[in-house]
Amino acid sequence: MPTPEHQPASDAPAVLEIDDEDLIGQADWVIGGDAGRKGRRQAWYAAYVATLGAGAYGFPVVQAAVQTTDPAWLRAQLSSPLAVGILGLSIVAVFWSLYSAGNFRGPVVPPLPWIDHVVGTPMDRALTVRRWWRLSVGSTMFAGALTGATLGAGVAFAGLMPWYAAGLAIVIGAAVGRASGALWLWGQVRSWPGPDRGPRLLYRPRDALRALHAESLRTHSANTSTIGGSVLAGNLRTARLQLARPVRHARRARLRASGPFRVIVRRDLLGMRRLPSTLWSGLAFTVIAATVLVWAVVNPAAPMLAITVGLVPAYLGYGAWAEGLRLQADNAGTPSLLGISPRAEASAHLVAPTALMLLALLAGVAIASRVEPVPATVAIQVPLLLAVLTGGHLLAAFRGTPPGAILRSGSGPVLLILWYLSPGLVVIAVGSLGLWLVRSTDTGTMWAIALAVAVVGFGFVRVQSLTDAHRI
Questions:
Q1: Are 175 and 138 in contact (CB under 8 A)?
Q2: pLDDT single digits (tens) 425-439
Q3: For the chain, domain boundaries
């Protein structure tokens, strides 16, 4: 009888080779069915629509803005250290925003059945979550490349830069998108305690995917479901509560007793101390906005598109500091513990963000005055801009519930998007038109002031009407 050492090869135990790729494919079909293929189709369709929109609207707008400006002057302005600094600060703001977003909703968010039945198996985690990572990083790279293509092609076609600037802008945009995706993933990894969460994961995505904890993926998946459902239902209060961070700073600080108005202002300032991320994020957006807006106001040759572009970070920066106003809107209709009217309370919540925005704009004007003369219309344009931002955020905080038309199958999603964007669009439209009226004609100043007053007045009307509606 042969010993085990001399046992024939034919009697050796068979080794079963398992292909993880094949198992993941089978699990994908069992759990999701045809959802994966439909998801890829939707992603390609979204990219197709975005490309058409950039070609039909973005490229002509950029080209028109460049062609209606003195090419030599604009070339000198775009190559100045100030323009380079604004571009660098904008990229840093994008990086920080995505890194912060990774704490709540990262780029890798599989559905809960996939996390329970596939991610928790002994298979390599870098393979089990690879599909969601590729989709997310592909989206960021595509967004960066499309932005670079729109700006680069518009500037190059207008003759301001050589033709290869468009290709270089695409490459730079894609690189920024890739770095943004890496920071987004790093923020998700660092949202859960672990032994290895260092910066080396930024250039080693497979190790970063392996560092994702199953409980972290469940948390992010639950956050996605809650926030997505709240957004689709128009319930912004639930989404804000889900995104709220725990207080870790200035926990021992207390409010000092004073009158109702001053107590509310101090409460808003204390909130910024306890959540410094809101203070710094608002400051970053405001610095970008103040630089662009002051440059556009001081230089009469600057294109009007600069004012429109500068109003976007101004709206975001002001909104980062207006958390108290949104909290008042969330509790609209409840008895006032301080015994003041809703309009007076809303006015108190506007003091802190308006004062911070005013300081940023005045600092920008003071710096610009050392370089070249500042026109006298700045004394009108700065209050006008503050009034438009104030009214726009009153409309945003007290917008109420979405209209019932969002439940329609065809036009419902479009109406919901417009409902969300309407306060920002009002700020951009009225602010751009008002600053243009002040800069272009003498009689346009009164029209600009009337528009700003109308926006603020309508905002306070919304404060009272929403409060009364909740009381009823």
A1: no
A2: 999 999 999 888 887
A3: 17-228, 260-330+338-400+412-469
